[in-house]
Amino acid sequence: MLNVEELGARIIIGFGDGSLYLTESTLWGFILAALLAAAGIWLGHGLKPVPETRRQLLAELIVEKLYRYTEENLGDSGSRFAPYLGTVFAFILTGSGLGVLGLRPVTADVNVTFGLALLSFLLIQISSIRDQGLGGRFRHLCEPYPFMLPLHLMEEVTLPVSLAFRLFGNIFGGVVVVELWFVFMEWLSSFISEVPFLRAVLVLPLNAFFDIFEPFIQTYIFVTLTMVFLNRAVEGGRHRT
Amino acid sequence: MSTTFIALAAGLAMGLAALGISIGQGIIGSKAMESIAKQPEAAGNIRTTMIVALAIMETIGVLTFVIAIIMTGSL
Asked: Can the peptide bond before residue A144 be classed as cis, meaning omega within 30 degrees of 0?
């Protein structure tokens, strides 16, 4: 029987009497952030006007793709959001893909995904208020009729919740399926020998789907949905003025 | 008695979610194929949009799966 109590992130390091602790996902989140920052600094240092090294070509390729993608979705003024969106993309992609290394994915923790979704929510609200002003934002929420205001407010709050639960559900579902597959394979191989040898290679297709394909799709969806809502919130006032 | 109902509920939740999602994904797939047949030059764009739509729909199934797992855990 699968134990539901053990499905959460494990506590790795405890400080003092154990009331202050680091879970698996927090620790790996910090390590990933440091690694990504190091990779970014390595890619970005010593750039020349004319690219000489392959490193600079790679960096230019990534940045160009990112900026083009952002401008396609957000218009010409959208490039100011590209650094944030790119960072979120890199973090979620590597965080969800940790399962390839046999670790627990960072985003299989509901706290991490809610944090990321909260960042998206704040970005949308703040940039919308900065672009349209508080009054303009309020008028935009009262479109087309003032009595729609509660519905619009509810929509704004639903966005981060659905973003967070979508990412969490998909990655966590993958973790659970792989875990169940291990249990099944152990049971099957127990008929033949003591060693659960069937666990070894047969899990690779599941890994390919849940740890490589699914993170790409989910990251893409997270960033794209953030962009769609950002576009609506920022552009909303611009058409009328 | 109550554990029987929990098991039943887990199975029903998963099955009903799968029913709705499969119908919806079938519609998305058929529409995407129709539009690719109409406009073969836009196939790449249509495929990307289709995958995003499929994945958004898939989310419901995954969430139901998590709920069903939690339900079977309380058996």
From this structure: yes
ipTM: 0.71
**CA count, 13 A, side-chain hemisphere, A200:** 5
Q: How far is B54 from chain A (nearest CA, A)?
A: 10
- The per-residue pLDDT for range A100-137, each reduced to its tens digit, is 888 888 888 888 899 999 999 999 999 888 888 888 88
Tell me which fold the domain B3-72 belongs to.
F1FO ATP Synthase (1.20.20)
SS3 call for A18:
coil
pTM for the full model?
0.83
State the DSSP H helix or E strand holding residue B45, giving kind and residue range, or none if neither.
helix B43-73
Q: B58–A170: do the CB atoms touch at under 8 Å? A: yes
Residues of chain A with C-beta less than 8 angstroms from the C-beta of B56 = 166, 221
Top residue of B50, B56, B69 to mutate, by most chain A CBs within 10 Å, is B69
Q: What is the DSSP letter of A142?
A: T
Where residue A6 falls among pLDDT bands split at 50, 70, 90? low
pLDDT at A237 over 60: no
Q: Which residues of B touch A165 (CB under 8 A)?
A: 59, 63
